[in-house]
Design goal:
about 55% helix, globular
Length: about 250
């Protein structure tokens, strides 16, 4: 190797070192140590719940956590989480705080709505947040077997299933699903003044709320296990309506 090539190689090496030093120096100015610590704390916050921690929670505690999480979502105060680490932590067991029965709607990102991560909540999704045997079995598993403390039936504005049920849509297996919403329509119609059509937002909202209440009653009436747990104050069964425009969940018993 001649001298020119040797000097060229060493020059390239020193240039790379200088660029690396400059990059590190620039990075440290952009992210001072205290900011790095904050990021690390955020990543490690809201760890996967242990069985002992789950057992200490009351249903009221869990409801407060869900409400606080929804406030975070509404105010865009979301935490960065290390999901890879959470997956490993939850791999050998899960002890979720609550189970959410939500509509299928893609505009309702349930875990985000309550600012929850992997291992925090069970989510059962079905169009119209209706109750059937499979849903009941899932709720019983979540509470009686896995220790969840709150069942939240979550409806939402502008629900396509509610509108389709009001319009008496019939199509394949959708027909049987929508039939489970009809009791809520009948219960609402008897006390609603105004146009009882899917084109009336006030009527749709009223049916949506009544449908959540109907599902709550179905859970109590058709699951002796969950009904007894509620009577013994081991769990709470609550309802909520998700506001599409704000992200706010309005809770009710």
């Amino acid at each position: 190797m001649n001298k020119d090539r040797i000097f060229s190689a060493w020059g390239t090496y020193f240039l790379a070192v200088l660029l690396l030093v400059a990059a590190c120096s620039k990075k440290s100015k952009e992210l001072p140590e205290d900011e790095i610590m904050i990021d690390q704390e955020e990543i490690l916050s809201n760890p996967v719940l242990s069985q002992e921690e789950q057992e200490k929670l009351t249903p009221q505690d869990v409801l407060r956590i869900l409400k606080a999480g929804n406030d975070d979502f509404v105010n865009d105060n979301l935490t960065i989480r290390n999901n890879t680490e959470r997956v490993r932590e939850a791999a050998l067991g899960q002890y979720p705080k609550a189970v959410i029965l939500s509509c299928l709607d893609s505009r309702v990102p349930v875990e985000d709505v309550f600012h929850r991560g992997i291992g925090d909540i069970f989510v059962a999704r079905v169009a119209g947040n209706i109750v059937n045997e499979d849903i009941l079995g899932s709720l019983e598993y979540a509470c009686k077997v896995s220790g969840s403390k709150v069942i939240l039936v979550l409806g939402h504005e502008y629900c396509g299933a509610i509108k389709s049920a009001i319009d008496s849509v019939e199509l394949g297996n959708i027909t049987a699903l929508l039939n489970k919403i009809h009791p809520a329509i009948e219960q609402t119609s008897g006390k609603f003044n105004g146009k009882k059509t899917s084109g009336n937002p006030e009527f749709v909202d009223a049916v949506c709320r009544q449908n959540v209440k109907h599902s709550m009653n179905e859970i109590r009436e058709k699951s002796p296990i969950l009904s007894e747990m509620e009577k013994n104050k081991e769990i709470m069964i609550v309802g909520g309506i998700y506001d599409m425009k704000t992200g706010k969940v309005n809770f009710f018993l």
